[in-house]
Structures are given as C-alpha cells and as structure tokens.
Amino acid sequence: MSQLHLNRYIRQVQCAKFGEESQQRLQTSRVFICGCGALGTTLANHLVRAGVGFVRLVDRDLVNLHNLHRQVLFDEADAAQSLPKAIAAVEHLKRINSEVSLEAIVADVRPNNIDQFAFDVDLILDATDNFETRFLLNDYSLKHKIPWIFAACLSTQGQVYPIIPGRTPCLRCLVPELPLPGSVPTCEMAGILGPVVGVVASIQAMEAMKILAKKFDSVVPDLIAIDLWPFRIQQIKVQSLTTQECPACHLGQYDYLSTVGLSLTTELCGQKSVQITPPCPAKCDLDHLSQQWSTLGTVERSPFFLRLRSAGWVLTLFPDGRAIIDGINDVALARSIYAQFVGM
C-alpha cells in the first residue's frame, strides 16, 4: 500500500480490529449493489469512502424530488433532470474517491441478466424494494457461493441479515415463500424516516467490510432488527431455522433463477400499457389497499378492481394480484410502480 493510499485510510487502518491487511483486502474487493435508492446510496457512500476497489451500482429508477429526504447521493438538480439513479450516484461518488472503480448500470435485475452484474464480485448487497428480487439474489448467491447481505427498512424499522453460503441459513429459510401482492407494506404506503435508512445501511456496510476483509468470525450471524421509535435493537437467532427441506440452500432448487416463481410482465400490444401477473394467483385485500392509497392519488374502487390515478400513469389492480399500468410502455418502470404501490 502506497504512503498516499495509507494516509487516506489511516483512521481505518489504526482501528485494531481492522488494520492494514483488511484495508488491502478492501482495495482489491469487488461489490455489486442491487438498487440505488435510500439503502443503495448510503451503502455506496460508505463503501466508496472506505476504499472498496470496485463498486457496481444497478438500478432501474429515476431520481424524484420525494427521494431527496433519504437518498444521500442526490440533489435537486438530479431530480429536476430525472436522471437515472445509478448514473447520478456514480457522478457524485467520483468526486468522493477517484481511486475507486465505479460502474453505473441502468437496468432491471432479472434472471436473464443477473449474471452480467454479479458473476465477478466478492459480495452482493441488497438495496432493493421487493422480495422477488431478493429471492433472485438469494438463489444466485447460493448457486455461485457469493455472500450477500439482506436489508430492508420501512417507517421507523429496519432489518439486516448477512447470508454466507454454507455458513448461515438463507433467506428462504426465514421467508419460505414469496409474500402475496399487497400483503407487505411499502414506503409509499407506510412512509419512512431518513435516519432509519442511515442506521440500517451503516450496519449493512459494517458487515460488508467484515466479509470483504475476510473477518468471517466477526460477522453477526443473526437477523438484526431495529426500531428507532420507540428505540429498540434486537439480534434474532436464526440458526435453528435452517432445515433439510429448504428448497434453495439444502435442495439446490434455484427457482428464481428461472421464470418459475417470478412475475410475468408484458407490454400490451397496440397500447401504452404494461400488464404484471404474479407467479401465483393471490387474493388481494382491495379494501385495505384502497385505504392505504387514499392519500397517494385519485382512487376508484369497484367490485372487480382497485384503481389509482397518478400523474403520468394509471394503476388498475385486480383481486388475483394482476395489474395493468396504463400510460407507460416501460416494463422496468411498470415493475417499479407495482413494487412501490402493491408490493412484490
């Protein structure tokens, strides 16, 4: 390590639990951050400042004004231009640490493209907004034996769980099946306070640094659950949840690396509309969702569907979880809208 490089990270190197060898390992490490919203920007900020050698950011969305209270790498100019989040984030990160190699990719992470994002990394970091993508990351991690860290936050609460293939239970040990559409609250419906993101992403980044430094014995083996209002932090033991019946980590059934178990997204021919069909028919509680949507736009309820009208698009949700989003023909944007307002 050059003296100039050492000087930059001297406060990390001086930490007895970390040291120069760990810093050198960070310098040669490669990370894939899936999602570049609240968690993703805070994670990237921490890891780029820490000196991780290569960071790849992949996200499908654009910067909006309502992102700015919690997504730390964006500003009003980014929102005014509706810049892709990955692009805007990397432009800011370049000014933070020119020594780190950065790659921005505007894409929706799916089974047919995940390999090009994750094949050459040492760690995958979850900064997504839906369980479908998390199940995909879980399967890829297990198949290719690449550690990953699950994280989520909502309202005043958050969770972090490091998953190391062969050492820990996987995500499907904790959550065996994909949650039904409409059954899991989203930030659009429940809201979120910015400091929660900072805490969750900081814990996730700390565990990431341990893994990249190969300090595996120091990695927290539990599900970390926080609530900042009222204040509470828990370590939930999960080792007993691993079973011989887990389809992913024990039976090697990587359903989410194929189209099995994933939603079907179709651009409707001749229309500016996209249809999203969940993998299994659901029984959505449209009355409950109607109440949650009431402050988000104009809501229309009929015996057959629930409709949300927003500027630029109209979301029509049917009782079986199927949805048609009118006013757009961007499949990635349609999936993002569905994840935000229905949950997936």
Class of secondary structure makeup: alpha/beta
Biggest sheet strand order reads 3-2-1-4-5-6-7-8
Largest sheet: 8 strands, mixed
Number of domains: 2
- Number of helical elements: 13
CATH superfamily annotation of the largest domain: NAD(P)-binding Rossmann-like Domain
Question: Which blocks of ≥5 consecutive residues have pLDDT under 50?
Answer: none
CATH topological fold name of the largest domain: Rossmann fold
Overall pLDDT level: 91
Radius of gyration: 20 Å
Gross morphology:
globular
Strands, count: 14
Strand content: 15-25%
Order of helices and strands: HHHEHEHHEHEHEEHHHEEEEHEEEEH
Please identify the top-level CATH class of the largest domain. Alpha Beta
Tell me about this structure.
- The chain is α/β, with parallel strands linked by helices.
- It has two domains: 3-257, NAD(P)-binding Rossmann-like Domain (Rossmann fold); 264-341, TATA-Binding Protein (2-Layer Sandwich).
- It is built from 13 helices and 14 strands.
- Strands 3-2-1-4-5-6-7-8 form an eight-stranded mixed beta sheet, with helices on both faces.
- Strand 9 and strand 10 form a beta hairpin.
- Helix 4 crosses helix 11 (194-212).
- It is globular.
- The chain starts with a helix and ends with a helix.
- The model has no long low-confidence stretch (mean pLDDT 91).
